Amino acid sequence: MAQETIYKTVYQYNKEPISVRDMARLQEIAEDCRKVRNFVYDRYGGIGGLPKIYPGYTVQNEMTKSGLRERLGLPSVFFYLSIFDALGDIKSQWTRIKSRIEKNIQVNAELTAEDRHYLRFVMKQSRCFEAVLAGGEPDLRGDWRETYGALRAGVDAYRLDQYLRRQVRRHLVKPHTDTADGFTISPKGYRYADHGIYISMKESRQRLFILLTDNNRYSRQIYLRLYPKEGNITLNVPVEVKQRHPRGYEGEIGLALGLRCMFVTHTGQMYGEKYFEYQSALTEYVRERLSRHRRNAENNPGMKKYTAGKRRLETALHAYVNAEINRLLETEKPGVVYIPKLPGMVKAGVNRKVNAGLNMWQRGYVKKRLERKCRERSVELAEVFGKGISTECCRCGAEGRKEGDIFRCNSCGQEMPERQNTAVNVLNRGKKLKAGNAGET
């Protein structure tokens, strides 16, 4: 069943500059929240914290008893949200660690199928994973205990446990932050009134009033971001909105994604023809300015100017990407969009300029925005197997060759733009996948 609602972030802005004194009060809260997060990172970000971070109430209770909130004088509406923000970061870190280990297990030629099965079982069973890392025995019962014992008996468990510990030590880095540019506020920490918002302060029964540019009111957890130099703040508010179900969106299209042209459809329509220009401008700026900065790092006053220029080019690129995706969907009006699964990034060869462009190719952003905008319109987005999709003839299936931007098939004589041939293959594979899934049900 299609998801009926989605979450999106809306922003609220201050109408008048925040005074230096009031900004300092907000910065003090942000700094205290940073200290709380780092305290949690340091105490629970390692192997010893694993048994306590799920679901996190043990950490909450221990942090309450630690006396840190009293020492900082931080209201509970900020203190406990900072704890759970830090726990979220720690959990994300462990997810990334397990993902990296899983990839290493997959490519390790010295591991047998039984070894891989055992290691994957240990990583998925939290009690096993925690016990192995701690060098102890997992407390399992019933079928879980029998399964674990059977798997362990069929492998060199000591060697595999040592391998898993080495992998974790290699990838585990406790999170830490030196940034104090904002903080999260629960609904109890603010109230809307008088065309603005009243935010709780560290002083007892004191609230800071901020006049806003709009009169919208929300009742949910929000994030307040600070811009001290400009005297401004933004309120980042996650809101749940209904998906749009526009009329006339039907049919299926296949898309070929590229660096020079963002999208080419199976009918040969192109969207994002200027994408390469925006991407090249960003790549050249980073490549030239950053190398210049590194050559003269001792005498360089900082990265502020470089960062501002990079942000300006990225903003222009992102605006173009979003506009072209909107144009694609509004013009084609598809019910289903098929795209190829994107492979890992590879080097192009000895051409450093091309390599830099490939490494900075923001295809992840393009895919993410395409997913988002399809979801907003209730358009299904499906990935298809991408191996060999650009060298296969869309008419007869034989392997062809690319000559510039043209695909030629020696078997059937087919000639057409190379990207269009790829898009047709994407559509064909998508239809076969859909038919196969329908047959299984």
What are the SSEs and their pairings?
Blueprint: E1 5-13, H1 20-44, H2 57-66, H3 68-72, H4 76-107, H5 113-124, H6 126-134, H7 142-153, H8 157-171, E2 182-185, E3 190-193, E4 196-200, E5 207-211, E6 222-227, E7 232-242, E8 252-257, E9 263-265, E10 270-271, H9 275-295, H10 304-332, E11 336-340, H11 352-360, H12 363-376, E12 380-384, E13 401-403, E14 406-408, E15 415-417, H13 418-440
Number of strands: 15
Mean pLDDT: 88
Main beta-sheet strand count, sense and barrel state:
5 strands, mixed
Principal-axes shape call: globular
Unreliable parts: 345-359
Give helix % range. 40-55%
What is the percentage of strand-forming residues?
15-25%
Strand order of the largest sheet: 10-9-8-11-12
Folded structure, characterized:
The chain is α+β, with helices and mostly antiparallel strands. It has 13 helices and 15 strands. The strands form 4 sheets. The chain has a 5-stranded mixed β-sheet with strand order 10-9-8-11-12. Strands 1-7-6-2 form a 4-stranded antiparallel β-sheet. Strands 3-4-5 form a 3-stranded antiparallel β-sheet, with no helix packed on it. Helix 1 packs across helix 4, helix 9 packs antiparallel against helix 10 and helix 9 crosses helix 11. The radius of gyration is 27 Å and the shape is globular.
Descriptive key words:
five-stranded mixed sheet, four-stranded antiparallel sheet, 49% helix, 441 residues
Task: Briefly summarize what is shown.
The chain has about 450 residues and is of the alpha+beta class.
